[in-house]
């Protein structure tokens, strides 16, 4: 039996679409591709104990249902709550390719577009998505970054956050042999502050968003989290289609017909790179675009169920230090890891000449 995965208001009307029974209504969120319906083979039943909002339909069965039964009053739909989401922004490494801009500052603190810094991109995305609980993990050359964050995002004369917060989690040494080590990777940075997420203050956090502080893109993170909830995913990875020339610089994925990741390779080269080619038309690309962009690349933007992330870091993979090369590829085997397609994305792992050209383009 087929079903349409889309969230619509409760009063719906039966229509005929290519001789298939369907529904017509105002779309709230979901997957409607090319102004049509995308039919999926699965139907996720409602789980007990989860929070739902009345007045929506999550999934509607088609074809062989009795039309006399097509009346929805208080349908149920789980809506993503920004208050249940914590964002963790990774402060970046040495950024050697941007030298001398990074000689005295971390890459997320590099100026862009005048008075802004690269860190302002994910910060702006968080604020405009309604996410008010933000941690920034810093380690390398962090003075300029810390100063910018303190001046721009504070309760006194910067951006107000109500009951939210913007807090810097700086790399530090703690008692014990392991406590004398700095961050060994993206996952290890989060692991070293795992006690923060277990704190009573964050007990209501259901989802943890992992972001990079040196990427350029625009995204509504709550749409991302909503997709994560709709598919009942343990982890969701945001991706973009990628061409042959840049594919080896990214983590690449293969997915099945439900959007679940079945293979993940971090920055493959040679034959391993060719083996990761996929039909990217599933992301909504035309045939011509799909022929030019044959890879599905990770943006390095992840959302985890909070309990899943804590389990992965503490017990399942305690020696894995990086999300892209270790945690995600390992979790694919025994967790529901879904993909969410993004649009425009720019990874700032480029040379200083390209930075100059990009900044000049902003002024024209």
From TrEMBL:
Function of the protein: This protein plays a role in synthesis of starch. It catalyzes the synthesis of the activated glycosyl donor, ADP-glucose from Glc-1-P and ATP.
EC numbers for this chain: 2.7.7.27
Domain Nucleotidyl transferase: 87-340
Record organism: Capsicum baccatum
PROSITE patterns reported in the protein's UniProt record: ADP_GLC_PYROPHOSPH_1 (PS00808), ADP_GLC_PYROPHOSPH_2 (PS00809), ADP_GLC_PYROPHOSPH_3 (PS00810)
Top EC group: transferase
InterPro entries associated with the record: ADP-Glc_PPase, ADP_Glu_pyroP_CS, NTP_transferase_dom, Nucleotide-diphossugar_trans
Pathway noted in the entry: Glycan biosynthesis; starch biosynthesis
Keyword set, alphabetical order: Allosteric enzyme, ATP-binding, Nucleotide-binding, Nucleotidyltransferase, Starch biosynthesis, Transferase
Catalytic reaction(s) noted: alpha-D-glucose 1-phosphate + ATP + H(+) = ADP-alpha-D-glucose + diphosphate
Entry protein name: glucose-1-phosphate adenylyltransferase
Example GO biological process: glycogen biosynthetic process
SUPFAM superfamilies for this protein: Nucleotide-diphospho-sugar transferases
Subunit note: Heterotetramer.
CDD domains linked: ADP_Glucose_PP
Similarity comment text for this entry: Belongs to the bacterial/plant glucose-1-phosphate adenylyltransferase family.
């Amino acid at each position: 039996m087929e079903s349409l995965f889309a969230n619509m208001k409760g009063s719906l009307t039966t229509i005929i679409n290519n001789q298939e029974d369907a529904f017509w209504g105002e779309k709230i969120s979901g997957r409607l591709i090319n102004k049509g319906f995308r039919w999926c083979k699965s139907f996720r039943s409602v789980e007990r104990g989860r929070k739902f909002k009345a007045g929506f339909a999550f999934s509607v069965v088609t074809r062989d249902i009795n039309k006399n039964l097509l009346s929805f009053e208080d349908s149920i739909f789980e809506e993503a709550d920004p208050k249940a989401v914590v964002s963790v922004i990774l402060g970046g490494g040495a950024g050697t390719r941007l030298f001398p801009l990074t000689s005295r500052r971390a890459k997320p603190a590099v100026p862009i577009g005048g008075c802004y810094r690269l860190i302002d991109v994910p910060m702006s995305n968080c604020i405009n998505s309604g996410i008010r609980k933000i941690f920034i993990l810093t380690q390398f050359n962090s003075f300029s970054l810390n100063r910018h964050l303190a001046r721009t995002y504070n309760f006194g004369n910067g951006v107000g956050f109500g009951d939210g917060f913007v807090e810097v989690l700086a790399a530090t040494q703690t008692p014990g042999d392991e406590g004398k080590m700095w961050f060994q990777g993206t996952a290890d940075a989060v692991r070293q502050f795992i006690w923060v997420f277990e704190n009573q203050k964050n007990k209501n956090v259901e989802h943890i968003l992992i972001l990079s502080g040196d990427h350029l893109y625009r995204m509504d993170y709550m749409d991302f989290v909503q997709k994560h909830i709709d598919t009942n995913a343990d982890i969701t990875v945001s991706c973009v289609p990628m061409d042959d020339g840049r594919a080896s610089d990214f983590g690449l994925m293969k997915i099945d017909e439900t959007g679940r990741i079945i293979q993940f390779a971090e920055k493959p080269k040679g034959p391993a790179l060719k083996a990761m080619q996929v039909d990217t038309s599933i992301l909504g690309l035309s045939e011509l675009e799909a022929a030019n962009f044959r890879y599905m690349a990770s943006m390095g933007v992840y959302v985890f169920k909070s309990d899943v992330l804590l389990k992965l870091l503490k017990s399942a993979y305690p020696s894995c230090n990086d999300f892209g090369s270790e945690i995600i590829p390992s979790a694919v085997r025994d967790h529901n890891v879904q993909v969410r397609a993004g649009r425009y994305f720019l990874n700032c792992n480029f040379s200083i000449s390209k930075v100059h050209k990009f900044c000049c383009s902003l002024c024209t």
